[in-house]
Amino acid sequence: MAILISQKAIEEVKKVKQAQNLGDESVLRMTILGGGCSGMQYSLGFDTEFNPMVDTRYDFDGVSLVTRKEYDLFLDGTEISFVDTPTAKGFSIDNPNFPAGSGCPGCGH
User: Fold this and answer.
1) Is residue 99 within a helix (H) or strand (E), and if so which, with residue range?
2) In terms of pTM, does the model score above 0.90?
3) Which among 3, 2, 78 has a CA at the least distance from the CA of 39?
4) What whole-number distance in Å separates Cα of residue 77 and Cα of residue 63?
5) SS3 state at 70
6) How high is the pLDDT of residue 86?
7) Where are the domains of the chain?
């Protein structure tokens, strides 16, 4: 298994790349900022660097998503989607390995 990205999220990434005039060499990089009581924290941003020695690359319908290989175990099965409702708009990351609200294993909160 790997990381999955919804068609709506792919379309949104393409729109943002076009709006920012980013070239084909730009990839979407996903990083893990940390964990703890609030759960895993993720960051999505564009990058032009890809090093196959330290990065894993996933290609989805013209969008390349890159993560550090060290994150592979933590991100396996993660789904990235795009939400656009009256109350929320943005990318949503659902990681079955670390569900939202699962609490901190260290303190139990």
Assistant:
1) none
2) no
3) 78
4) 18
5) helix
6) 92
7) 4-94
**Tokens standing for residue 16:** 């943002």
Q: How many CA atoms lie within 13 A of 5 on its CB side?
A: 22
Give the pLDDT of residue 40: 74
The alpha carbon of 89 is separated from its chain's Cα centroid by a whole number of angstroms, namely 16
The pLDDT tens digits of the residues spanning 8-38 come to: 999 999 999 999 999 889 999 999 886 666 6
Task: Please answer whether residues 2 and 64 qualify as being in contact, where contact means their C-beta atoms are separated by less than 8 angstroms.
Answer: no
In this structure, what token pair is assigned to residue 12?
């949104």
The reply to whether CATH 3.20.20.70 applies to domain 4-94 is no
Residues 79 and 92: their CA atoms lie apart, in Å, by: 8
Over residues 55-65, the pLDDT tens digits come to 999 999 999 99
